[in-house]
Amino acid sequence: MFEPLRPIPPGRRTALGVLFFVLFIAAWAGATFGGLVKPLFLADPLKTLNAGISLFAEFGFLGDVAMTIWRVVGGFAIAAVVAVPLGIAMGAFKPVEAFFEPFISFARYLPASAFIPLLILWAGIGEAQKLALIFIGSFFQIVLMVAVTVGATRMDLVEAAYTLGADRTGIVRRVILPGAAPAIAETLRLVLGWAWTYVIVAELIGASSGIGHMIMDSQRLLDTGQMIFGIFVIGVIGLISDFLFKSLNERLFPWNFGR
Amino acid sequence: MSRLRVEEVARTFPGVRGGPPTVALQPTDIEVADNDFITILGPSGCGKSTLLRIVAGLDRPSSGRVVLDGKPVTGPGRDRGMVFQSYTLFPWLSVADNIAFGPRERGVPKPEQDALVARYVERVGLKGFEHHYPKMLSGGMQQRTALARALANDPAILLLDEPFGALDNQTRALMQELLLGIWEADRKTVLFVTHDIEEAIFMANRVAVMSARPGRIKTDLRIDLPHPRHYTIKTTPEFAAYKARLTDEIREESIRAAAMVP
Predict the structure, then answer these.
(1) B22-33 and B157-161 strand pairing
(2) Phi, psi (deg, nearest 5) at residue A25
(3) What residue segments make up the domains of chain A, in order of their start?
(4) What residue spans in chain B does CATH classification 3.40.50.300 cover?
(5) For residue A258, which residues of chain B lie inside 8 Å, CB to CB?
């Protein structure tokens, strides 16, 4: 059963994945219903669920969720639209890489959250500030990861294309881009996950709507049920977007998934 | 008339980390006549692939030049189609789209591309696999596709760099017959690099034997075996005589090459 690297049937795979969720919730229920933790610090599963229902039914939580999703997708899309072409240019053309790479490697280590006070000063606490934060958090990561992917293009394929009469444009368009596309899509999936962290941070600090704002409000009311539910919703949305991204990739790049 | 002329081509690779430079190829001359099939036979590391890459324009000679149809070679181009030892099909393209790569790149209209694909899929025996991705093909099928891809682009000369080197013996023998059959029908000019003596004799009209590194052509042997050749020719006394002679030559070089290893 524990033979290294041996695959398991899909049914068992799903069952094992679900099993962990069940055990996790069971442990949570045990700790709270069994009185191991004070309700003030950790709400029990039932209370959390009730808090969630009232959030949607009475407090218009759906609007917060939509707001947060909009911010993530907006900021991330703006970052991706600029970062992907720049990353491709850097990976494909070494002078472009030499020009941008040192600065971007430096900028990548600047913690995006540390920009929040500055961004509030510059852009207030409106949408521009949230989008800017997500942009800063995602942009440099995408650029570097795409550049590395493109730079790792198989040289033998480039040479084969040259002997078939491809010119430089042909090499970029018909070898480098299609070859790097699946890994670029994978990079975007990964960075989108990080963008979720930034949006919540932005909403915790200065916002009047969104999931992060709701969590902050609940803290003032010591409503751990609502806080846990909010965090839980973020996890679920992340899981869904990840799944959508994955199945989109499999449809766009069937050659990469052997069938 | 000679189609390809390699004139005094030499290649020296710069030393790595202050080490001495490596002479891969001594000044080498070779002429390939129109419609000829020449194999370059040599022990591993003798610079035969370097020579072929220079002809392809993928590497630059340190001195000397390559002239194809009267024009000096300055870089890679579609007039010199190549099949590599490693699998170089584009993984994101189907067999058909791989074969159509060259024609599409030079703007051949789609219906003509389709006709070319159909013709070459047929010739290399891959009917029914047009829509498969390379990942789904065996090594032999991938190399047949690579051969079709190079031929569909109608190069002036076909360069083959140990194209069957990674295949098992049986598949390799079948691939040799397939390529020879195509050559006997089309008489495309071919320069074929290999370290396999039988393969060199079976395929070629001329075998150029290279010395151990630094490489140079030490023997240029005509193979006067009649065409069309059947695989049974490998058991004839004439074939055996060529094989005995080339085995001696290559053995000598292999011993020299082995002695040079520290």
Answers:
(1) unpaired
(2) -70, -35
(3) 58-257
(4) 31-60+71-79+158-260
(5) 133, 135-136
Query: Of all residues in chain B, what percent carry a pLDDT higher than 90?
Result: 58
State the count of interchain CB pairs (< 8 A) between A and B.
Answer: 77
Class at the top of the CATH hierarchy for domain B31-60+71-79+158-260: alpha beta
Nearest CA in chain B to A255: B92
Which residues in A lie closer than 8 A to residue B86 (C-beta atoms)? Answer: 156
Whether residue B140 has pLDDT greater than 60? yes
B101 contacts in chain A (CB < 8 Å): 161, 164, 166, 174
B84 CB-near residues (< 8 Å, 6+ apart): A156, A159, A160, B146, B161, B163
For tokens 């991706």, name the residue: A80
Cβ distance A179 to B91 less than 8 Å, yes or no, reads yes
CA–CA dist A196, A207 (Å, integer): 15
Minimal CA separation from A162 to chain B, in Å? 6
B109 touches chain A (CB under 8 A): no
Chain A residues within 8 A of B150 when measuring between CB atoms: 163-164
What is the CATH superfamily name and number for domain A58-257?
Answer: MetI-like (1.10.3720.10)
pLDDT in tens, A33-71: 998 888 888 889 999 999 999 998 888 899 999 999 999
- In sequence order, what are the residues at sequence separation of 6 or more whose Cβ sits closer than 8 angstroms to the Cβ of residue B163? B83, B84, B85, B143, B146, B147, B175, B192
Question: pLDDT tier at A259 (50, 70, 90 boundaries)?
Answer: very low
pLDDT recorded at residue A177: 95
Average pLDDT of B199-216?
88
Instruction: List, as ranges, residues 144-183 from A with C-beta within 8 Å of B.
Output: 156-157, 159-166, 170, 174-175, 178-179, 181
Whose CA is closest to B195, among B168, B161, B169, B223? B161
Residues A187-225 pLDDT 10s: 999 999 889 989 988 888 878 888 999 999 888 888 888
Query: C-alpha angle with apex B159: B155 to B162, nearest 5 degrees?
Result: 150
Strand partners, B81: B158
**Quick one: which of B63, B15, B59, B55 has its CA closest to B32?**
B55
SS3 content of chain A, % helix, strand, coil (to 5): 80, 0, 20
